[in-house]
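Would you be willing to look carefully at the protein I have copied below?

:::
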Amino acid sequence: MKNTLAGVNLKANIIKIILTSLIMFLCQSCFNPFAPQLETGSDGGGSFISDQKSIEGLFQNFQYSYTFKDTTIYGNILDQNYSFVYRDYDLSVDISWGRDEEMKVTYGLFKNAQRLDLIWNNIVSMTSDSLNIIRSFNLTITFNPTDIIFIDGRVNLDLQKADDVWKIIKWVDESNF
């Protein structure tokens, strides 16, 4: 009788160890659909947001800021001495503004658009020191399903690298919008 009880206790202990190990394994490998992990970039190895240590990283953050309507990221791509210049074809004059006005205008765009799709195309021109880049783009602004604007144009950017980070100093809009 004693051997039978010892055998039952041994089996119970083995079952407890197996169940405890199984529970610990399952707890460590569980996926909670209500608390998923943060998604990484499309290459699977990095974040959507760049450190802007490369020019492509600057353009990546530019695109991210428009896609997610993120003024914080957008503000980080602009230098404190930033200026924007565009041509008013009706008045035949160039109009410009600084960083503060740019942030207000961009905030208004981000707030009023339902969706922004910015696609960077090829670099048309770049100086050897990478301080001036002309690049084409396609921008689709969806205000509502019946009010969609398509813009194809080029940006002419003067860039500066300070503290190992690229920023836009001047943006001359070369689109015909």
Notes: Residues 1-31 form one domain. The longest strand covers residues 147-162. Helices lie at 2-28, 55-67, 71-77, 99-112.
